[in-house]
Amino acid sequence: MKIIVTGSLGNISKPLAKLLVAQGHSVTVVSSNPDKIPAIQNLGATPAIGSINDVAFLSSTFAGADAVYAMIPLSFTEPDLGEYLRRMAQNYERALKQAGTKRVVVMSGWAADLVKGENVEDVFAELNTSLTIMRPAAFYTNFYQSIDLIKGQGLIGKFLTLRYLGIGALLTGKTGLLMGNYGGDDRIIFVSPEDIASAVAEELLLLPEKTTIRYVGSEEMTCNQAATIIGTAVGKPWLKWILLTDKQMLQALKMARVPGKLAETLVEMQAAMHSGKALENFHRSQAQMGKIKLADFAKEFALAYHKK
Q: What does the buried/exposed string (b/e) look like for 181-207 if buried means 16 or more CB atoms within 10 Å of the residue's CB?
């Protein structure tokens, strides 16, 4: 099959491309960065350099493909996250229609349907094609963004984004705390990008007649259990995840100079996590868990932590 993978060499797209190439498919990887060309070619894939802002580029790249994996990179420079996501989704929708693509797998998030104005799945639903919406839970890999703060090089100042409409958190490294307007004993599904890539690879080879939704997770635990696993791996077993009020979280994000409307959206995302509704939807979907546990990822995280 000829398969297009968007997302450059990101946490999902890189292992996805490797897996598809190993299965014998003809894979094209879309990236906006020409410096990625050698790395894409080293995977055995074909690079397509351009922007998802460019509908003509997308349409020509998708032409003749059997399947497309479509993802929208999350942006924290856009003041209105919902408007940005919808604009990018509409670019994909127009390009996929022009190319006549028969099979599309779209990356979304496990709380996408719970945040008002941020769900762009309906844009893709307008496609007259075989469509699957992927709703992965909270990414393991975004803990990497917390390394400096866990080491105590700063107080409140960064937030950790665990994927599109997934998780946001603030850390105060000197006290060994994770903070957010969900946390503590809230139960969360965490997921390895490699498990997501495996699920996407399975879906790309299918051709369901009706639109399907697939939730993806690797392990369920409380936020404090996750903090302990990460903290223990780096020699800080006392690491805790403190639950803030929505108001406290909004104030913290504004202190971090996050634009007002975007900050409100992030707080709403986390509130959906704290409410337990995202977890209920995940269980209702009867999704099977992936293979990679947080303890496995924590070993990789510790190596990166100690190198920095």
A: bbbbebebbbbbbbbbbbbbbebbeee
